[in-house]
Amino acid sequence: MKIRLIAAATLLLPFCAATAATPAPVQDLGTGVTGSDSDRIARLERIIKARQEAEIDMQRRLDALQQEVLDLHGTTEQQNYQINQMLQRQRQLYDEISKLSSQQTSNVANAVPAQPAAASSGSSLSETDSYQRAVDLVLKARQYDAAIPAFKEFISQYPNSGFADNANYWLGQLLYNKGDYVQAKTAFENVVNNFKASDKRPDSLVKLGLIAEKNNDKATAKSRYQQVVKEYANSAAASIAKQQLAAIKP
User: Which residues neighbour 27 within 8 Å (Cβ) at sequence distance 6 or greater?
Assistant: First the structure.
């Protein structure tokens, strides 16, 4: 019996020695994945590299977004500059037209005598013909002084005409160009107060503001301009009113 046990032990010794010499596999307790130290290091390197690439990509996107914001900001500034230039040019044109009209009025007054007889003949004309005649004195004949009584006569004869708002505005403009601000104010106020739906109303309000400025009445001028901005926010008259408001010194 002892001989058999000794023989069995002799046979098992090499197997036990081999088992003891083989290292136990390394196990990643956090993931349950087994592997050597080199495998674990390689895996960590891949994770770190992936994170670095993700951070680089995120930074690249942030840089792109920042550049887009800068580009949009630059575009907005450029557009604002262009709008301001357009508004400034519009105001210059507005002033140039007024000056040109004043010069033409003065030249006509010196070179061509007024024709009261022609103006009085308007009583025999129809409503439309009477209005057209007054307009033609301005646009075709350039007889501005003669046009003033022609428009006054038309307004007197046809106070409720569909042309009455335009006639009052024309009259106010002619009187304004002559420097007769008292009568011009009355004509523009007729448009503002009696023709609420007229497309000449915002321009008449601007003119009333300009007349107030010429009379050094800054409070009334500001009130008129603010009314234009409030009631006709998207109009050309509102653009002029905003510029006039900005130019009024406190």
Answer: 33, 34
